[in-house]
Amino acid sequence: MTIHSLSTTEPKLTTLLQLIVEEFVFIAAKSERYREGWERLTPYAAIDLVLRRRQDVDWLRDARGEKFDAELSECFDMVWPAIIALQRVVDEARTLDSASDIESRYDAWLQAPISVIERYRDTVSLQTIRETYEHMLQCAVGARLAKLDEAPKDQQVFRTRDSSLAIEQIRISAYSKETVFIFDTERLPVSLQRGVSGAKCLAVTVPDAWIAKCDAFVNFSAPSFGLVDNCRTAQECVLQLASGWVRLDAAEVNRFLYQFDDELPVVFVGKEICALAVHEFFGLADCASIDATLAHLGELDGLIPVLSDRLSFDDETSVKVDVKSRVLNAVSYAGARCNRSLSDIPDAIDEVPF
Question: Could you tell me if residue 186 is inside a domain?
Fold first, then answer.
């Protein structure tokens, strides 16, 4: 993709917008939530997205990202009509059952929407929007065609007795009971790496007895909200996974979840066994939605379920479920490898998450 027509006093802004569009379309293609993702995109999130996913942007890492804020905001607003048009196309394409039906509509989809022409009458802006739209359309339609060719994938839990240095560090950590571990996928046992397409994963400790029965609890969906009683406040807001068996402090953990672009691989670490379940997740949209819910929590009385602090297995054995309220973040960033030990002290708690 090449955007030649962007008018700016900053020469690298054109390159930056191009990189943002490329990375955005790639990660949004899995869920096909283009409009929702772009709507939540901010200059900070966009620059961070590029830095996390590219290793050829030394100029961006060394520059002050703030200097792009105003112009990027204008660019995002300018491209917005193209995003709306793209989502309409993708929604239509999802109703078509064959590649030939989709391909027969492609030329019609290429035509820029009338609303774009009416909003941007200057030729420079219009050309930029057209170039961006055409590139996004090509990628989105290609992704939709690929989905038609893919065999249906059965979501499953992968178990293994294999281990790695990272897994052993989690097992010996004095903080594992209360901590969520986020680290590079390459530090997992090889047998689990094959189940993850992304570069990072999230891990929590659980009993081996639970891992043996977790197929009955894991539903592979994105985290959902719940409320639990605790000793510090009347109730604590958590993000729950695996039918409530895994509970993450919502305010503390969500500020790290943006790193998971298009899936959320969760590793359940027992004393002898590990298991992996890849959950649905679109970081740009889902983290923003979680933030919005947390910001208006007081207005949602009765809408968020209250969770018991104990859950039972099929044999009626009762187990207390702890909330993971700390995070140890050990992911590589902007090409800089992170070898932080997972047995270290967790990151400092963010006292002002909003």
Answer: yes
